[in-house]
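Worked example 2:
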Amino acid sequence: MRLKNLKLTQNALIWLIPTTFLLLSGCSSVKELQVFSKAVERAPLSLQDPDPVRLDSVQWIVVTRDNFEAVFADLEKKGFDPVIIGLTSDGYETLSINTAQTRKYIILQKEVTKQYREYYEGKNGTEKVTNQ
């Protein structure tokens, strides 16, 4: 029985010592990790300001029960086909609100473009800003 215990102990030591050595030497070969940070210059956006919106003028003619015959006669005299495209007062209000929302959106997009330009190119567009 003693001989059996002695062999088990020898086998355990035979496996334990090399395994321990490999684990310890494997960890000692790891070099210290070095991290370098380098400031990166932001590339200019080279965005051009969009051209201003140029809208054609629209002539509005208010047609009522009282003046529709005169309006049609005037249109025919000028060479236009008399066609009625109408809006209710609520429809006109909705059209006005949509126009205001479109204008607001354009103003917002111009501001976003301005902010991007300031971020990438600096306040006056000439100084270079680096990422730190």
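The chain has three helices and two strands. Residues 89-121 form the longest helix (33 residues).
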